[in-house]
Design a protein that fits this description.
single chain, about 750 residues, alpha/beta, Rossmann fold, Dimethylsulfoxide Reductase, domain 2, seven-stranded mixed sheet, 27 helices
Length: about 750
């Protein structure tokens, strides 16, 4: 029997609504849900391939447990017995920090990943936490924490209403957007131009997004912070800074002007390789637009001054009066947000603890992923190495710098657990692999991405396909992991959700600002609906959220039952001004020049005199790819989605590189061999390799990916280059050498 089922797509940050065609227990087709309140039928190649992702024959269907050095299929009870037996002795003998946790990007794409890791980390109290954030967006979290007092208070451009968008280091026509959840980002940019708005793209590559723009600036990689600082100085110098209604909410404006004074267009132009008059024009256009927004992403984060660039994005939005303004950059309000009253907060602290080996400071409770290998393989006086590791939906052997070293370090762990549907370059080292079911068999609500959405809305989909015999729900896997890792192995996994619900309601009834203040937490818990613990937790969050019914205090408000009555979602309206409510700084205002930022500005000043001596490397995204997730799906690895080195014709001629011929690329961390692709879409002096490839290690079970493995671009890095404020890896603008090879050769194993 053929039927249709709804599902929110989990394959990128756009969160589009899908209508799946289901035959028996298998997804055979996917199209855009035209009635979805947010995506309105938009779909990209990844969403269209949902069925192929879901039914990949290489997905694991049973747990694996290592016996006598080999991974063998086991029962779920055997797997969790092994987890408890392998991890608890490590914690009890060496302490909580000897158990490390690695969380990958897919965690924010699943309901289980949103609900359970915070509970686990709160119970474990390990300081050895590493996530994909420190090879991606941690600079934005740090700058938001310092500016606004909340690392998750990230303003997003009001794409549907802005008159002027300055887009830096982002390629949303390929990525579908990032830290800006916007189905049909390409259509929204075209609509901006159609209504007379202006789009400027700053990127060393002429990307698909850059081709759409009114103006493309091919900046020298890594100099975004200098450009933004010069634009801010221009606004001050020419009397164009106008905070408008933001003025009462801003601290340290005069100090900011003094701190940025040396960064004039004339001083930064040589470093950025842009003309000073053009930089002034950019600032003037930004100030003159009726509404405007500056938006920057991974290309501006994964550079030596990533936190400063992220900070300056919001500085420009403040100086032009466009922060917290319709048409500018606004703070979304998700249905599961906790709406706290306005007022001073505790602010945001950096460096509350440090890594053992290099003494790298934590940021947002995390240590740099670049430090993971050394935290495992390097003993130090007075501190234990990471001896056991839990890796949840992460593949750091490919995503972190110097994967060869990490590969060896993982092999030396006392014990490792991986929650992963594949046996990949990282999970192949695990002693236990716990595979979640295919996405069609899981419920879905976007906790993280709704806090970054360009329109307030709420959607929830139950599993489109019943859970396959022998599989375990991803939420139950996480709940059982919490019990096994915290000394409660064997308890009913339902106790995890029940405990969270009880603790949340106990706090809520004691909070004078809560709609249930003074109530009975047990009686309130009994009123929650849902078929299981995760749904009851979602119901709780909706009811206590900013649109919720407050358990009857706000009749007609959101509940899970009401949301279930709207299978295509509920539109909660356009983004709106919210200041000062989101601010949690000690002053209760925007701290425009935080101390750590001011202390880092001399380092930016030194960059005025820096010039690359040779070629520098940048990454690139493909529309059919999302990091290393999807290279095992044939439909998503064709066309332009290839692991080639983009090089400008001038550089190719100088080096004697032929189009399609193999070249050796050498960096501080090693070398790789890839075919050259000569193109004018990359500026002279810059070469580009995509991220997520390198599927050539033995012991994996991704057959299609292994047929065209590509090379691991992060092997060119040794992990020493970090943005000091955020600990984010420097992945872009790093020096490399390129040498032609006389005859094509295969890349070395593990490259």
């Amino acid at each position: 029997m053929t039927r249709s089922a709804l599902r929110i797509c989990p394959l990128c940050e756009a969160t589009c609504g899908l209508t799946l065609t289901v035959e028996g227990g298998r997804v055979t087709g996917a199209r855009g849900d035209r009635e979805d309140v947010f995506s309105k039928g938009f779909i990209c190649p990844k969403g269209a391939s949902f069925g192929a992702v879901d039914s990949d024959p290489d997905r694991l269907r049973a747990p694996l447990v290592r016996v006598n050095g080999e991974l063998r299929e086991a029962s779920w009870s055997e797997a969790f017995d092994a987890v408890a037996a392998g991890t608890r002795p490590v914690v009890e003998r060496y302490g909580a920090d000897a158990l490390g946790v690695v969380l990958g990007n897919p965690n924010v794409h699943t309901m289980a990943g949103g609900l359970y890791p915070p509970v686990l980390l709160g119970a474990l109290r390990t300081r050895s936490l590493f996530t994909a954030s420190t090879v991606d967006q941690m600079p934005k979290h740090v700058s938001s924490g310092l500016l606004f007092g909340d690392a998750n208070a990230i303003p997003v451009p009001d794409l549907d209403h802005t008159d002027h968008l300055l887009l830096i280091g982002a390629n949303p026509l390929e990525s579908n957007g990032s830290l800006c959840t916007a189905p049909d980002f390409p259509g929204r940019l075209k609509a901006l131009r159609a209504r007379g708005g202006r789009l400027t793209v700053v990127d060393p590559r002429r990307t698909r997004t850059a081709r759409l723009a009114d103006r493309h600036l091919a900046i020298r990689p890594g100099t975004d912070a200098l450009l933004l600082a010069a634009m801010a100085t221009t606004l001050f110098e020419e009397g164009l800074a106008d905070l408008g209604r933001l003025a009462p909410h801003v601290e340290r404006l005069p100090e900011l002007r003094s701190a940025l004074a040396e960064f004039t267009p004339e001083t930064v132009a040589p470093a950025c390789d842009l003309d000073a008059p053009l930089i002034r024009t950019l600032a003037r256009e930004l100030a003159a637009a009726p509404t405007a927004a500056v938006y920057a992403r991974i290309g501006s984060c994964t550079v030596p001054h990533g936190t400063l660039a992220s900070w300056l994005v919001d500085v420009l939005n403040v100086l032009t009066g466009n922060l917290d303004r319709p048409g500018g950059a606004l703070f979304p309000l998700a249905a599961t947000d906790r709406l706290r009253p306005a007022g001073p907060g505790r602010g945001f602290a950096l460096g509350r603890w440090h890594s053992r080996v290099r003494r790298l400071p934590e940021a947002k409770g995390e240590l740099p992923l670049s430090a993971l290998a050394e935290e495992i393989d390097t003993p130090t006086p007075g501190g234990e190495p990471v001896r056991a590791l839990l890796v949840v939906a992460a593949n750091p052997v490919l995503s972190a710098p110097d994967g060869r070293r990490l590969d060896k370090a993982l092999a030396g762990l006392d014990f490792m657990v991986a929650v992963d549907p594949y046996l990949n370059e990282t999970s192949r080292h695990a002693h236990v692999v716990l595979p979640p079911p295919p996405p069609a068999q899981s419920p879905h609500h976007d906790f993280a991405f709704n806090t970054l959405a360009v329109r307030n809305q709420v959607r929830y989909t139950r599993p489109a396909v019943p859970l396959e015999d022998g599989l375990m729900a991803e939420t139950e896997i996480h709940a059982r992991l919490i019990l096994a890792l915290t000394g409660r192995h064997g308890a009913d996994p339902a106790v995890v959700d029940a405990t969270v619900i009880g603790q949340t309601l106990d706090r809520a009834v004691e909070d004078p600002d809560s709609p249930v203040h003074g109530g009975d937490s047990r009686a309130l818990a009994a009123r929650l609906t849902g078929v299981d613990g995760p749904e009851r937790r979602l119901d709780l969050m909706l009811r206590l959220g900013p649109y919720g019914d407050g358990f009857g205090a706000r009749p007609g408000g959101l509940t899970l039952a009401r949301l279930m009555d709207h299978p295509h979602g509920i539109d909660l309206g356009p983004l709106a001004s919210r200041l000062p409510q989101p601010l949690r700084t000690p002053s209760g205002r925007i701290e425009l020049l935080p101390g750590p930022i001011a202390d880092d500005l001399p380092r930016l000043g030194a960059a005025l005199r820096e010039r690359p001596a040779g070629l520098v490397l940048v990454g690139r995204r493909h529309l059919r790819s999302n990091n290393s997730w999807m290279h095992n799906v044939p439909a998503l690895t064709g066309g332009s989605n290839r692991c080639t080195l983009h090089i400008h014709p001038d550089d190719a001629r100088h080096l004697g590189v032929r189009d399609g011929a193999d070249v050796r690329v050498t960096g501080a961390g090693g070398e790789v061999v890839a075919p050259a692709e000569i193109t004018e879409d990359v500026r002279p002096g810059v070469v580009s390799l995509p991220h997520g490839w390198g599927h050539d290690r033995p012991g994996t079970r991704q057959r299609h990916a292994a047929t065209a493995p590509g090379v691991n671009v992060n092997q060119l890095l040794d992990g020493s280059l970090l943005d000091p404020l955020s600990g984010n890896a420097v992945l872009n603008g790093v020096p490399v050498a390129v040498d032609p090879l006389d005859t094509p050769v295969a890349a070395a194993p593990g490259s």
